[in-house]
């Protein structure tokens, strides 16, 4: 009798088990990658919205220092109120002559954008935030 070449059932089962472990690792890697991409997208959008508001206020300060939008205080834009960014909320705080250190008219502007990150497991309940703080002065 001649023995035919081939794999035994045990060899096939071991190879299948090793392949299954490798595929599970790759699938887990895809989940982490997707989560990382969504986290980066959320942070980038929050940073953009923060800078957008800050640039609006700086442009306004250059053209009309006495505009009501530059009055000291806090303005809150709730979730759903920012155009094309319903998953974000924004808080703008303006302080006149912070610490009494300015020799000219100056304002401290802090813009904070809050969001709930989206991960591979869904939207998280804990808010994250991006802050930008700057000081502007009048031209005169």
Describe the structure concisely for a colleague.
The protein is α+β, with helices and mostly antiparallel strands.
Structure description:
- The chain is an alpha+beta fold and 140 residues long.
- The protein has one domain.
- The chain has one helix spanning 9-63, and strands spanning 73-77, 88-96, 106-115, 118-119, 122-123, 128-137.
- It has a four-stranded antiparallel beta sheet, covered by helices on one side.
- Strand 4 (118-119) and strand 5 form a beta hairpin.
Task: Report the principal-axis shape.
Answer: rod-shaped
Order of helices and strands: HEEEEEE
User: Separation of termini?
Assistant: 105 Å
> How many beta-strand segments?
6
Tally of alpha and pi helices = 1
- Which blocks of ≥5 consecutive residues have pLDDT under 50? none
Mean pLDDT: 87
Estimated share of beta-strand residues: 25-35%
| Main sheet summary | 4 strands, antiparallel
Count of structural domains: 1
Structural class, judged by helices and strands?
alpha+beta
List the strand order in the largest sheet: 1-2-3-6
Radius of gyration from the alpha-carbon trace, in angstroms: 27 Å
Tell me roughly what share of residues is in helical segments.
Answer: 25-40%
List keywords for this structure.
39% helix, four-stranded antiparallel beta sheet, rod-shaped, single chain, 140 residues, alpha+beta, two-stranded antiparallel sheet
Secondary-structure map:
Elements: H1 9-63, E1 73-77, E2 88-96, E3 106-115, E4 118-119, E5 122-123, E6 128-137
Antiparallel strand pairs: 1-2, 2-3, 3-6, 4-5
């Amino acid at each position: 009798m001649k023995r035919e070449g081939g794999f035994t059932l045990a060899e096939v089962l071991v190879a299948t088990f090793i392949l299954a472990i490798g595929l599970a690792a790759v699938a887990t890697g895809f989940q982490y990658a997707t989560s990382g991409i969504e986290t980066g997208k959320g942070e980038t959008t929050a940073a953009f919205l923060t800078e957008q508001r800050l640039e609006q206020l700086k442009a306004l300060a250059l053209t009309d220092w006495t505009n009501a939008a530059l009055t000291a205080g806090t303005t809150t834009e709730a979730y759903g109120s920012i155009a094309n960014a319903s998953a974000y909320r924004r808080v703008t705080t303006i302080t006149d002559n912070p610490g009494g250190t300015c020799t000219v008219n100056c304002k401290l502007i802090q813009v904070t954008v809050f969001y709930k990150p989206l991960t591979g497991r869904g939207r998280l309940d804990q808010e994250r935030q991006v802050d930008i703080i700057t000081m502007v002065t009048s031209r005169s």
